[in-house]
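Margin note from the TA: students keep mixing up input and output lines. Inputs are the sequences; the output is the structure of the whole complex. Example:
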Amino acid sequence: MDSKPCADSPPRAKRPPVPVKVVIAGGFGVGKTTAVAAISEIRPLTTEAAITAVAAGVDRAHAVPAKTSTTVALDFGCITIDESLKLYLFGTPGQDRFGFMWNDLSQGALGALVIVDARRIDDCFPAVDYFEKYSLPFVVGVNLFDGELPHDLADLRWALAVDAGIPIITFDARDRLSVLDALLAVLRHTLARADAD
Amino acid sequence: MTREPYRIDRAKPHRDDGVAGQANGGRVSRLRPYLLTSGRAEPVDDTLEIEAQVLTTDLGVTTSDRLSFEYREIVELCRMTMSVAEVGSRLRLHIGVARVLVADLAAHGYLVVERPSIHFTQDKQLIERVIRGLEAMR
């Protein structure tokens, strides 16, 4: 691992920056890590989280020994906003069965980008359900793999059955500016939600 | 039965342990991860966020050579600010283990930890700052 730390803070600065985070969710292979890599100032890092380590905080009584060998990979990157503020992007593990980990990822998040592959939209349903349930502001970002949208956005909204207030955008997970715009869409939606409350 | 206090300073080799000097080398990777945390999977503060920022204090710098290796690695790594998730990634520790070790070190004053506020989604000024910062990157 030869990537640099997220910020080159001088040793023992007064205070570390305040961290904020946005969750990047969606099905397996939908472009989450690609999107993080496109915009992160460090090469995305992967960390292993053991199921028991995470489950311990959620459901200690039912943590069974059989689970101890299972780990999930968590990809993340970061963007320095200014010297006292740093934005982290955490990708959810793609597999639905690791859904319980999302508490860890979503706690205190500013919002989420749910990435959708328009050819298999079912994959994003667990993410949409989760963020609706926990009232985390989210935006649906349709990753344009081939530069074309197989359905129009109105059809897609109908198929996703998301509230009319949830923005649906198209973007290219490989393109830095496009990912930047998608993140801005998430944060503006979060701001609108904060205004409405 | 009294519980032995949890210690994070380097344990002295046992006097009658003839192989103490060679017992540790090269074996580390075979340990199950939670041996590093003396079997605890629960951090001192188990709410420590994975994005919480970690920075070594002056105390941490001056005392790092007295710490056992897994703590010393963190204290040396965090001379540059990074998140708990990065500590886990760079030292190839499970997130849960990184959390426990960071929380231990912070409790002893070897690290400072900057945690996110919990009501971010309501903090409009903060959200606006992030938006302005991202717009400036266009």
